[in-house]
Write a structure and sequence with these properties.
The protein has helices spanning 2-28, 135-196, 198-214, and strands spanning 38-44, 55-58, 61-71, 78-84, 95-100, 107-112, 125-126, 128-130. With 215 residues, it is α/β, with parallel strands linked by helices. It has an 8-stranded mixed sheet, with no helix packed on it.
Length: 215
C-alpha cells in the first residue's frame, strides 16, 4: 500500500510540473507587454469589436496591448489607451486604425508609422485614426442595394409590358375605325361635290335667260 501511495504522489507531482511548464510557456509567448512599455491614446468614432486586452500590431507583428477603453463624455467618442513596447518609437504623424483579424475574429489596432522627425511621447494622443468598420452594417447595405435594384428593374419591365399592351390595343382598334370611317368620308365628299356643281351652272343658266329678255 505504501508503494502504491508513493507512486500516485509522484504521478500527481509530475502532472503538476508539466501543467506549470505549459502555463509558463503560454505566458512567455503570449506577447503581452506586462508592466513594460509606454502608453498612448487614440480617439475613434466607433470601436465595434475592440476590447481591453486586444493586440496592437505594426506590419502584422504584435508590439503592444489595449489597456483601457472609455468614452469622452463631452465629445462622445471612444478613447482607447494602448501600451507600446519601449523599443518601438512611433513618429508623431503615425496613424492608428481598427482592423478585423478575420470575418469571424475580433479586432485589433494596426499602427502605421509616419515620417515625422519628432516621436510621440508617453501619454500623447495619436491624432490620425480610422474607426472600426462593421461587417454586419456593410452586409445590410449590400442586401438593401441589391433588393432595391431588383425592384426597380422589375417595375421598369412591368411598365414596358403594360405600355406595349396599350399600344397594341390602340393599333388593333384603329383598323376597324379606318374601315368604318372610310365610307362616311367618301359619302361626304361625293355629297359635297354634287351640290357644288349646280351652283355655277345655275348662275350661268340664269344669266343666259336674262339676255334674250333684254333684247
Amino acid at each position: 500500500m505504501g508503494r502504491h501511495g508513493v507512486a500516485e504522489t509522484l504521478t500527481g507531482a509530475f502532472v503538476l510540473v508539466v501543467a506549470l511548464a505549459f502555463l509558463a510557456y503560454a505566458v512567455a509567448h503570449s506577447g503581452r507587454t506586462g508592466g513594460s512599455g509606454y502608453t498612448l491614446q487614440a480617439r475613434f468614432d466607433h470601436i465595434d469589436g475592440l476590447s481591453t486586452g486586444g493586440d496592437v500590431k505594426i506590419a502584422g507583428v504584435k508590439v503592444g496591448t489595449v489597456t483601457d477603453v472609455s468614452i469622452d463624455p463631452k465629445t462622445f467618442v471612444a478613447v482607447v489607451t494602448i501600451s507600446v513596447r519601449d523599443n518601438i518609437q512611433l513618429p508623431k504623424d503615425s496613424a492608428a486604425s481598427i482592423v478585423s483579424e478575420s470575418l469571424l475574429g475580433g479586432k485589433y489596432i494596426s499602427l502605421s508609422p509616419g515620417g515625422d522627425d519628432t516621436d510621440l511621447k508617453p501619454g500623447q494622443t495619436i491624432t490620425i485614426t480610422q474607426s472600426s468598420v462593421s461587417l454586419e452594417e456593410l452586409l445590410g447595405k449590400f442586401i438593401f442595394s441589391v433588393t432595391s435594384l431588383n425592384g426597380s428593374k422589375g417595375g421598369q419591365s412591368g411598365g414596358g409590358q403594360s405600355g406595349g399592351g396599350q399600344s397594341g390595343g390602340q393599333s388593333g382598334g384603329g383598323q376597324p375605325g379606318n374601315q368604318s370611317g372610310g365610307n362616311p368620308t367618301g359619302g361626304q365628299s361625293q355629297g359635297s361635290s354634287q351640290p357644288a356643281s349646280p351652283a355655277p351652272g345655275g348662275q350661268g343658266s340664269g344669266a343666259g335667260a336674262l339676255a334674250p329678255l333684254s333684247k
